Amino acid sequence: MKRFTVSALCCAGCLWHSGVAAVDFESQIAPILEDKCYRCHGDEDVKGGLRLDSPIGILTGGEVGEVLVPGDPNASSLYILTTYPKDDPDYMPQKGKGLSKREQDLLKAWIAEGASFGDDFVAPIQSPARKKFADADPDNARNYIILGDAVEIVARLRDAGLLVDTVNHDASLFEVSYTYAEREAGAFDFEALEPLEDSLRKIILARTEVTAADLIGLENFQSIEYLDMSRTSVGDDALDSISKLKNLKFLNLRDTEVSDRGIQRLSGLPSLEKVYLWGSQATAEGAKRLERRLENASVSIGTRISPPPRRTGP
Q: What pLDDT is recorded for position 6?
């Protein structure tokens, strides 16, 4: 695959950045993206609606919004997700070898300097960044031919601001994300998911205002296998509802307020395979105790890593 030429992407509008940056996009950043990112975010595969093979694609972002915030590496998922532990579900790239420390440093420095694409690049007058999921095409290839009654159900959920996708390209199984739906505490209307009850496999609540009281509404969804509660403020009381999801296999409680005492309630989940506790109130001793009680599960615990901030607007 040939690397793109920045000058060929000029268009009418205003200059994105002027002046000479210490880190050059064309010679230093583009080769990193080509080597590590194109296989999932290039012209042959566009996961998450995100293309990283052109400046316009990078600025546009994907289904979950922008990935680049010029001048702020820690708010740019394009950089920050490459620094996560490799077994974190949000780690990028998900395929192939990750970025080296030198490559991470170059990417961070480039963003900190303003993310210049070169003096010849002219950005569109109107920002191409998408507003949450509103601009996502409901009929594109990401839907993997959703058929029957599910078409109308999925459309209603998307109209309500939720991101709905199929699981592993199986049009009969679904995942739903609330991360960018801007729900306030107490406003997580899980009853809207009831038409998909038997087909629901993944629920993503990461970086939301969800509470333990909200989670009571999930207790009847016994088909859930994957639950991401990371970077929320939930504590031990939330585990009362989570411990009733008997088919749960994956649970992310990273950067939450759960403790050693609370996580032991998960020992009654026979299908649990992986629990993430980084940055929570749980200790290594408590994690080991839970792992022994679960027998077949791996419980990971480590240090808190600063994530991109939760989005509150376009």
A: 35
Q: pLDDT value at position 27?
A: 92
Q: Note the pLDDT of residue 290.
A: 94
Split the chain (314 residues) into runs of 10 and give each run's mean pLDDT. Answer: 36 37 86 90 78 84 75 85 82 88 93 85 45 39 52 84 78 84 89 88 91 94 92 95 94 92 94 89 93 88 46 42
Quick one: pLDDT at residue 65?
64
Torsional sign, CA 57, 58, 63, 66: negative
Which 3-state string (H, E, C) describes the chain? CCCCCHHHHCCCEEECCCCCCCCCHHHHHHHHHHHHCHHHHCCCCEHHHCCCCCHHHHHHCECCECCCCCCCHHHCHHHHHHHCCCCCCCCCCCCCCCCCHHHHHHHHHHHHCCCCCCCCCEEECCCCCCCCCCCCCCCCHHHCCCCCHHHHHHHHHHHCCCEEEEECCEEEEEEEECCCCCCCCCCCCHHHHHHHHHHEEEEECCCCCCCHHHHHHHCCCCCCCEEECCCCCCCHHHHHHHCCCCCCCEEECCCCCCCHHHHHHHHHCCCCCEEECCCCCCCHHHHHHHHHHHCCCEEECCCCCCCCCCCCCC
